[in-house]
Design goal:
single chain; alpha/beta; Rossmann fold; 2 domains; 7-stranded mixed beta sheet; 5-stranded mixed beta sheet; 12 strands; 38% helix; 18% strand
Length: 325
């Protein structure tokens, strides 16, 4: 199944499985050719799928109100950059209402966005604000990297009584993966080892999992055995899986599409430094988006984003094995 098809399947299963689920927004699949599949949901469920104007502050606020009133909305903000228009609603309202009400009120909703460099998005359509979201207690964050995980995690998110951020990436849409007929919800806080290895642990999420797998295949031909850790959810985080892997390999490379400073990679590096310093035989390394606005130019995009080539260079440096040795 294509990842894009899995997005629509997750939405369809959610609407079919619970009459309280309503969809708000039409850019779950961005402006890609796949976007017409979302229109099929509107034709199937015209009373439960809404295509609002591009006014994120307004319709995210409406979704929060609907969640408080007993519905379970899934709201799409299109690109991650557009969530900034709704930050007051997401970070100050959705994340805090349960606490501020003394546990009397919940906000069971899902907020979807497509993050990262996607080709020509430039500085105002290429953000990866996962670390900003993570810095706000009260939000759950899912980062699927394949079709099966996407469906399983979304089913869990829809059933959760907490507001959940669903992080997607346009470059995932044309990737493929097997999806079991009887797929079940995936519990939050349980990561997955995408590739077993002994020399180096690579932490990666979302699209970066695919870049890391590509690099690992190349490194294997050079005698470097890479273990790839996919958290699947950032909140809650499967710290135990990460620490077990680092204890085995002794090295950690964090691949993160957030900017280098104060990104997801920073938190993972800090966690391992605090809890597994004695297991490390080399300094922790990060490959992340450079701390500059993302350019429009494709060559400059490639210069600032985490690429397979950058992952290869960092992995070779960490393991002390240079290409051609």
């Amino acid at each position: 199944m294509l990842y894009a098809e899995a997005v629509v399947e997750a939405l369809r299963r959610s609407v079919q499985g619970d009459e309280r689920v309503h969809l708000i927004g039409q850019y779950f699949l961005g402006l890609t050719p796949h976007r017409t599949m979302v229109g099929d949901l509107y034709r199937q469920y015209p009373d439960r799928v809404y295509f609002p104007p591009i006014a994120e502050l307004g319709y995210v606020g409406a979704a929060i109100g609907a969640a408080i009133a007993g519905l379970r909305p899934i709201v799409d903000c299109a690109t991650a950059s557009f969530t900034f228009q709704a930050f007051a609603q997401i970070l100050n309202e959705a994340a805090n209402i349960h606490y501020m009400s003394g546990g009397q009120t919940s906000v069971p909703m899902v907020i979807h966005y497509n993050h990262g460099v996607r080709g020509g998005g430039a500085a105002q359509h290429s953000h990866s604000p996962q670390a900003m979201m993570w810095n706000t207690p009260g939000l759950e964050i899912i980062t699927p990297s394949n079709p099966a995980d996407l469906i399983g995690l979304v089913l869990t998110a829809v059933a959760s009584d907490n507001p959940t951020i669903w992080v997607d990436h346009v470059r995932l849409f044309d990737t493929e993966g097997e999806v079991p007929e009887d797929i079940e919800p995936i519990p939050f806080g349980r990561g997955s080892i995408r590739r077993e290895g002994t020399d180096l642990t690579v932490f990666a999420s979302s699209w970066m999992v695919h870049r890391s797998l590509e690099a690992a295949q190349i490194l294997a031909t050079e005698g470097i055995s890479v273990e790839i850790v996919d958290p699947r959810t950032l909140v809650p985080l499967d710290e135990e899986m990460i620490l077990r892997s680092v204890a085995k390999t002794g090295r950690l490379l964090v691949v993160d599409e957030c900017h280098l400073r104060c990104g997801v990679g920073s938190e993972i590096a800090a966690t391992v430094a605090e809890h597994a310093h004695g297991d490390l035989v080399a300094p922790i390394r990060r490959v992340a988006t450079l701390d500059v606005p993302v350019p429009f130019s494709p060559p400059l995009e490639e210069y600032v984003e985490p690429t397979t080539a950058k992952i290869l260079d960092a992995a070779r440096s960490l393991t002390g094995i240079q290409s051609g040795d």
